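Re: the request from the purification team.
They wanted to know what the chain is likely to look like in 3D before they choose a buffer screen. I agreed to run a prediction and write the result into the notebook, where they can find it.
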Amino acid sequence: MSTLPTPRIALVTGASRGLGMAIAEELAEQGWHVVAVARTVGGLEDLDDRIKARRPGSELATLAPMDITNDDAMRHLCRSIFDRWGALHLWVHAAIHAAPLTPAGHLDAKDWDKSLAINLRATGMLIPMVEPLLRAGKGTALFLDDPRGGAPFFGAYGATKAGQIALARSWQEETKKIGPRVLIETPCPLPTATRARFFPGEDREALGDLHAEATRIVATLGDSA
């Protein structure tokens, strides 16, 4: 049996759509209180509606419509989590920028800068903010890999996503003995908006089920999360 406080607190960055939303919904279904972060207010409200539909009368989500590249906003959020709960038991980092596919010789400067800011820099700034909260809660950080580094036309996305995961792996090695626990999962191909941008003609019926994959990933956390 888990000995963690009730409710367990999960921060989900990138919670307004795709696998981030599905994981946030699954966590709430299992009784976690989810602090849901995304820029899209409508997407967060949709998540809240879905959680309340599955758990009527519950208050299992705190919506935080903000940009993860805004350091001051994210520091304030982490401080608010500490002030309210004193700890964090899980951080799921699902936020990503999917730049349009293009040859490396034709990279657009704005897309490149945005990819660096969201996929790489924000991750590097968030880890030091979140780490003390996770240590206080003996918690877990979960990253979602998508190994596209070196693939043709995936230059901006592939390079920055690979950099993000490399950073997560360094953190994972550094904290093996002292915590927090750092997990890296590679989801199966899913019918997300990001994948639709990359493969617009793909047969989406052949892809995995978002909620089934969210359930599988949450199950990997175990009672120690």
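For the purification team: The first strand starts at residue 9 and ends at 13.
Please add any questions underneath this entry.
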